[in-house]
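RECORD TYPE: protein structure
NAME: Water stress and hypersensitive response domain-containing protein
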Amino acid sequence: MASSDNPEAVDRDLFSGKGEKKEEEKGGFLEKVKDFIHDIGEKIEETVGFGKPTADVTAIHVPKINLEMADIVVDVLVTNPNPIPIPLIDINYLVESDGRKLVSGLIPDAGTIHAHGSETVKIPLRLIYDDIRATYAEIKSGSIIPYRIKVDLIVDVPVFGRITLPIEKTGEIPIPLKPDVDLDKIKFERFSFEETVAILHLKLENMNDFDLGLKDLDCEIWLSDVCIGGADLNESTEIAKNGISYVDVPITFRPKDFGSALWDMIRGKGTSYTLKGNIHVDTPFGAMKLPLIKEGGTTRLKKNKDGEEEDSNEG
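PREDICTED:
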């Protein structure tokens, strides 16, 4: 093999002696410079007090949850031990359930953490239930699913450069289902052409895997195609998970204002009814407003055991 085929060997042969000594001297000088710079950096860090920031999840809020979506806000406390403000460059987040991605995103330019201070950074997330159900058919309405929130906060710190602060938090979130409602019966407390007072006996079935604490109920009642009025109830009632509860809702109306539907009911002829409204409930995951809708029920007036007239539900 020619010597030109191995330049490294040639270089070692040509510069043996003085050449090697110069390289050693050059290397030693560079090492000394590096050590000097490193020492100066450590002295500056010690004197000025630079350090790595920290981050931790302090709370998770659910400000809004309904049948369509859940808004989640993650509170992250970021502490900056440095004597100068540091920019929060990016926030990457991922929400998953049993390894299934529910939502992910990026929040750029998320603000600045003050010198020697702590800031609570709020990270807003939104879960769209239709998207979740369309992607994962095994996730059913009315169920509770586990979640894991993963957040990477990227900050820029002098001396250290860009740093990623990873944090995680786990919990549970529901996929709510509206309760089923039936007009079990109507009891007339007072009947006259000018003013009639009736009590709606409603049957509410909670088909969720969590309790519903009823706080308020408002609905409109339709007989055939006639709305006889609205009802509003402020009553605290617990509807257990996968359970049934009954509530009495008073309503006042003027029979003379309505057509044949009311009189058909009074004469014992069947008439259809519709309930449309909402219930306001407390849940372990926050307050919810859930719709109440019942169409196609049929009612008619009957005598009860005490001889009083009341309307009974036939479907």
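COMMENT: Confidence is low (pLDDT under 50) at residues 1-18.
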